[in-house]
Amino acid sequence: MKLAEHAGKDLFRRYGIPVPEGFLVKDPSEITIIETPMVVKAQVPVGGRGKAGGIRFASTVEQARSAAKDILGMDIAGNVVSEVLIEERLSIDREIYVSLSVDRSRRLPLLMMIKEGGMEVESAPPAQITSWPIHPFVGIPSYVCRNAASKLILDPQPAAQLEAILSNLWRLFWEMDCELVEINPLVKTFDGRLIAADAKVVIDEDAVYRHPGLIEAAPNLTWLEREAREKGLAMVLLDGDVGVLANGAGLTMATLDNLALHGAKGGVFLDLGGTDDEKVVEAALAIMSKAGQRVILVNIFGGITKCDTVAEGLISAKDKLRFETPMVVRVRGVNEEQARRMLAERGIAASRDLDEACQKAAALGGV
Amino acid sequence: MSVIITGATKVMVQGITGHQGTFHTEAMLEFGTKVVAGVTPGRGGSQVHSVPVFDSVEEAVAETGCNAAAVFVPARQAMDAVIEAIEQGMELIVVISEHVPQHDAIQMIQYAKFRGARVLGPNCPGLASPGTGKVGIMPNMIFKRGSTGVVSRSGTLTYEIVNALTEAGIGQSTCVGIGGDPVVGTDFVEVLRMMEEDPDTGRVVLVGEIGGSAEEEAAEYITKHMTKPVVAYIAGRTAPPGKRMGHAGAIISRGRGTAESKVKALEGAGVKVAVLPTDVPRLIRESA
Question: B278, A354: Cβ pair inside 8 Å?
Fold first, then answer.
């Protein structure tokens, strides 16, 4: 779950990480006082807003209102701007990159710093990137902060600030179940202060229950995605017209790859995950049947999800929803014979072979 | 011989009285696994498929001498269950639970490392060695004893491929599902190393998917250390580019993570990469 910049900065403030003074508005008329040069920033959950014109400078109320008016309603990479953050404009001496993320290979958090932050960090030469694996039982030791400050070539005063910022950033990362906390840039001002000019915070979806009250970046979801999310189903929308309902991400991807070999493209792609509840299957089919797909391919390899549970869900969905979209079913694994029998009794032929089912679905998908 | 699980493995099921725990305890018993105990706090004294249930892992160990755990508890209780199992000396802990918070996974894995225990998962289907036993949820009927090892990041896709092998008459030594989460206790390289050393494994199937760099790391290991032939399948060749995790992900991965990168790395290591899951048996035959 990605937080909007202003929500991320609220967290920074709560954890004692310095951020610019600022306020959030949804309408230009809310801007009444501007005393110092400000930045007007679109609040969207994607990068590249600067290049899209979503960041403007203003020194008067009129300028700020006019910038906010232009930015609000703007479409940035498919996200319509509904809020702007108005912040004190920093006098930037240097920009540094700082992040805490999870290093999958080491199975540990990773602190990463780059001497020159900003837009071009992804192409920073490896020699400029310094990183330290952080053990959760230890946290960020002081010596790492000292070494970081020396690698970043910071004067003693900002170096002391860096140590405080890193230790607070670690507390935030760990206590708030973050997958990522990124400050790009961490600004050093001409008067020697370190301030987080941006905040990118991604909270682990599986741990959100521990943090009620977090404000998520306004997700730009279609009604289908919203419905899938409410039912707890993982959904991806592609531009094809074969709806794929499978269990497990790997199998779902393999099904799409297989369809592609037969010249068909996946459209709505729903992953049942490890459910064994016929009601979830029924809900998934309800969403699928409304999605305007030419054919629905159900591919189940039973393990935790048992084939007969899926069959029960499919049958009851078919009975209740009476949809016309043709359905190609393939079941293997736990309780497959039972499932095939149940489906056959209702006139649904279930195949055993994946490639055969994909071929059939591709033919019906009308390529 | 087999990998990870042996004839001496005595399994305790945490969360045995739940729907999944009960169902898969029976399946594990049918597969020939020594399931000797179950644990559900508050349900001690009862039985599930004739397996005694205890209130705590400590009691289960004292009464049965179990040395491996299969964790079927809900995600929110998974870390507690794993720590309890590690504390009581379990050598192998297979975490089936899905949606375990990532920081909990990091903590349980690091604690296991500190105490010298092996964690498989979380969010994994477990492992099976036909003729020896199974810890987890892989369907019994798809297996056949043989000499091909399988290691996979996926669950159901693994079943698909094992099933295809069995139908082609190719049996398996051990199949290990390492789990699909970003942070897992046992990775490809560790399993490949065990399979390279296992006298009963003659060749290996690696099933990967897009995202992360585990397949690229496996390719490096194969180049340097594997003498046994490896066949791979990578899911997600046609999947749209995944979500990016800020700049950090891009800086760490440096272009790795895509299907092309993984296929290229594996082919560079001399691995034959299948286009379809059902091509795997043919490639295994050709590599024999």
Answer: yes
List, for residues B130-176, the tens digit of each pLDDT value: 999 999 999 999 999 999 999 999 889 999 999 999 999 999 999 99
Cross-chain residue pair A251–B157, CB shorter than 8 Å? yes
Residue of A5, A15, A83, A97 marked catalytic: A97
A185 — phi, psi (to 5°)?
-100, 155
Instruction: Select the residue of B98, B105, B157 nearest A274 (Cβ to Cβ).
Output: B98
Q: Span A223-364: which CATH code? A: 3.40.50.261
Alpha carbon distance A87, A22 (integer Å) = 4
Confidence band of A234 (pLDDT split at 50, 70, 90): confident
Six-digit token string for A209: 């229950």
Residue A97 among the catalytic residues: yes
- In chain A, CATH 3.30.1490.20 sits at 21-88
- Architecture per CATH, domain B126-287, reads as 3-Layer(aba) Sandwich (3.40)
Would you call B189 an interface residue with chain A, using a CB distance cutoff of 8 Å?
Answer: no
Type and span of the H or E element at B235: strand B230-235
Q: What is the pLDDT of residues A104-133, one digit of tens each?
A: 999 999 999 999 888 778 888 888 899 999
B11-120 against B126-287: fold identical: yes
Q: Which CATH class is domain A21-88?
A: alpha beta
- Comparing A26-30, A289-293, B70-74, the range with the smallest average pLDDT is A289-293
Report the length, in residues, of chain A: 367
pLDDT attached to residue A334: 84
pLDDT tens digit string along A297-328?
Answer: 999 998 878 899 999 999 999 888 888 889 99
Domain with CATH 3.40.50.261 in chain A: 223-364
Cβ-Cβ contacts under 8 Å for B200 (sequence gap 6 or more): B1, B2, B147, B173
Burial zone of A319 (CB within 10 Å; 0-12 exposed, 13-18 middle, 19+ buried): exposed
Predicted confidence band of residue B1 (pLDDT cuts 50, 70, 90): low
Amino acid symbol at B141? M
What is the total residue count of chain B? Answer: 288
Q: Are A87 and A53 in contact (CB under 8 A)?
A: no
Six-digit token string for B152 = 């996979």
Min Cα separation B155/chain A (Å):
7
Q: Can you tell me the mean pLDDT for A347-357? A: 91
Q: What CA–CA distance (Å, rounded) separates A176 from A202?
A: 10
Q: What are phi and psi of A362, to 5 degrees?
A: -65, -40
Minimum CA–CA partner of A124 in chain B = B251
Set B19, B24, B49, B247: catalytic member: B247
Whether the bond between A20 and the residue before it is cis, its omega within 30 degrees of 0, is no
CATH hierarchy code of domain B11-120 = 3.40.50.720
What confidence score (pLDDT) does residue A55 get?
95
Give the residue from B239, B231, B181, B233 showing the smallest Cα distance to B207: B233
Any idea where the domains of chain B sit in the sequence?
11-120, 126-287
Top-level CATH class of A92-210? alpha beta
Domain with CATH 3.30.470.20 in chain A: 92-210
Task: Give whole-number Cα distances, A289 to A237, A286, A325, B150, in Å.
Answer: 14, 5, 7, 37
Cβ–Cβ under 8 Å, residues A49 and A74 = no
Q: Is residue B118 within 8 Å of B112, Cβ to Cβ? A: yes
> Is the preceding peptide bond at A185 cis, omega within 30 degrees of 0?
yes
CB contact under 8 A, B212 and A104: yes
Q: Using the beta-carbon criterion (under 8 Å), do B106 and A102 form an inter-chain contact? A: yes
Phi, psi of A296 (to 5 degrees): -115, 120
